[in-house]
């Protein structure tokens, strides 16, 4: 987002935080669903996006337009938060869409946090991503941008029924619609990181040839926490092709100590002789 859009989003996010402090988890979840439904509407209706972000209109005029369109279709709390969004200045209509979607996601994560389930939601999102990545046919089906999003969401709901929390399933649906303009895989990764960030944690993606024991994972997490000055949420991927050792990615930092990397380096060095 550009500066004006970031400032407008910040105002709405602060209002969301104030609302969450005094609301029940179920009420926050319902508000989140309303906001995400409006994000879906904005995605389908580019003319509406343009009208609600038009700098030639006053903030009051844009709020009036929003209220007239939504009527009684969303709750009062969602409408108040959406009004905070559209009354601000947006650098582009697409940034209003991104801001609306992000606000709905943050509300959903906040509802899980208040219910004491945010850590589980974070893990469920990551594990679902791992399951999808391990089945090329499923991955292609869920990532297909041509297939209707609702059909793909229906498949995801079937797969997750009884295995994941409602907040997780709703977030997967958001990912399938291309959260923030990302691919399905990229959107899932971003949602995992937002969930961790709300818990004031950094995500470390760890690739190993064989699963780490609980104690090994704990020690690795403690070492990374000391390095980054923040609690670290370790996410393991088992890939026998790395042969041994550990690869760790934290943000843009990559620490690759795998046997595969060393073999590749040796092969490249021999090829240059």
UniProtKB/TrEMBL annotation:
Bilayer topology: Peripheral membrane protein
GO cellular component, one term: plasma membrane
Localization per record: Cell membrane; Membrane
InterPro entries for this protein: ATP_synth_OSCP/delta_N_sf, ATPase_OSCP/dsu
Chief location category: membrane
One annotated GO molecular function: proton-transporting ATP synthase activity, rotational mechanism
The organism's place on the tree of life at top rank: Bacteria
Keyword match Ubl conjugation: no
Keywords per UniProt: ATP synthesis, Cell membrane, CF(1), Hydrogen ion transport, Ion transport, Membrane, Transport
Function statement: F(1)F(0) ATP synthase produces ATP from ADP in the presence of a proton or sodium gradient. F-type ATPases consist of two structural domains, F(1) containing the extramembraneous catalytic core and F(0) containing the membrane proton channel, linked together by a central stalk and a peripheral stalk. During catalysis, ATP synthesis in the catalytic domain of F(1) is coupled via a rotary mechanism of the central stalk subunits to proton translocation. This protein is part of the stalk that links CF(0) to CF(1). It either transmits conformational changes from CF(0) to CF(1) or is implicated in proton conduction.
PANTHER family: ATP SYNTHASE DELTA CHAIN (PTHR11910)
Protein family per UniProt: Belongs to the ATPase delta chain family.
Name of protein: ATP synthase subunit delta
Organism in which the protein naturally occurs: Micromonospora rhizosphaerae
Lineage of the species this protein comes from: Bacteria, Bacillati, Actinomycetota, Actinomycetes, Micromonosporales
């Amino acid at each position: 987002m550009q500066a004006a859009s970031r400032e407008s989003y910040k105002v709405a996010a602060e209002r969301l935080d104030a609302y969450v402090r005094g609301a029940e988890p179920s009420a926050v979840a319902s508000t989140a669903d309303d906001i995400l439904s409006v994000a879906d509407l904005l995605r389908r209706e580019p003319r509406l996006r343009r009208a609600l972000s038009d700098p030639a209109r006053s903030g009051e005029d844009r709020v009036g337009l929003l209220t007239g369109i939504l009527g009684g279709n969303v709750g009062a709390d969602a409408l108040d938060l959406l009004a905070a969004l559209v009354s601000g200045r947006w650098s582009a209509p697409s940034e209003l869409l991104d801001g609306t979607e992000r606000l709905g996601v943050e509300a959903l994560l906040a509802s899980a946090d208040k219910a004491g389930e945010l850590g589980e939601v974070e893990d469920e999102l990551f594990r679902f991503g791992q399951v999808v990545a391990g089945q090329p046919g499923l991955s292609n089906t869920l990532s297909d941008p041509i297939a209707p999003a609702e059909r793909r969401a229906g498949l995801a709901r079937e797969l997750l029924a009884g295995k994941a929390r409602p907040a997780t399933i709703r977030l997967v649906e958001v990912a399938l619609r291309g959260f923030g303009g990302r691919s399905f895989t990229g959107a899932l990764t971003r949602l995992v990181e937002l969930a961790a960030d709300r818990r004031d944690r950094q995500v470390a993606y760890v690739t190993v040839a064989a699963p780490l024991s609980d104690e090994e994972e704990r020690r690795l997490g403690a070492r990374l926490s000391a390095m980054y000055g923040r609690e670290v949420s370790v996410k393991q991927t088992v890939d026998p092709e790395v042969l041994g050792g550990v690869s760790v990615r934290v943000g843009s930092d990559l620490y690759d100590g795998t046997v595969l990397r060393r073999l590749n380096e040796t092969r490249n060095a021999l090829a240059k002789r």
